[in-house]
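2024-03-11 09:14:02 INFO queue: dequeued item DUF308 domain-containing protein, len=177
2024-03-11 09:14:02 INFO validating residues
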Amino acid sequence: MKNWLIYTLIGLALLIGGVVALANPFAATIAATQIVGLVFLIAGLLQMITVMRGGPDSHRWVNGFVGILFLLAGLSILINPLVGAAWMTLLLGLLFVAMGVMRAMLSFTFRHTSLFWLLLLTGAASILIGVLIFSNFFAAAETLLGLLLGIELIVDGIGLIAFGIVARRPRHVETPA
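2024-03-11 09:14:37 INFO prediction written
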């Protein structure tokens, strides 16, 4: 199978997955949360393996503590994915507000340039998104991660389909005369 076709098929699969995620953002949120929980669990296990294999100067206590935190977080998310989704939504809301405030503050250092309004408006938009998340937090916790996952899958799918189409075209090499 040609590479361009593989890219196009992967893009099509991502696009379909994104549409499915947007059609049921609650299920996509639960799936995304469980994947994060599984990643934390694996990271904790790997961290604990490094603790067991490490030498006397390998910061075993710190690595062990971090490993236990990862294990507990992973197990907690896997046992109750809705609570995990709420925590991740809380972090996303805080991230949007913090990034928006930082971008708005940064805009004033570019006060006399064309970047001022762009940075100020994008900062305000991020703050607004954060405020919207917190204004209806429980609804956001149930669907936000799924919506973001769906949008990401659709954008990545379109990008890979476009890449596959471009990669299919023959390349013409011009030779100097």
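2024-03-11 09:14:37 INFO annotate: The chain has a mean pLDDT of 91.
2024-03-11 09:14:38 INFO item closed
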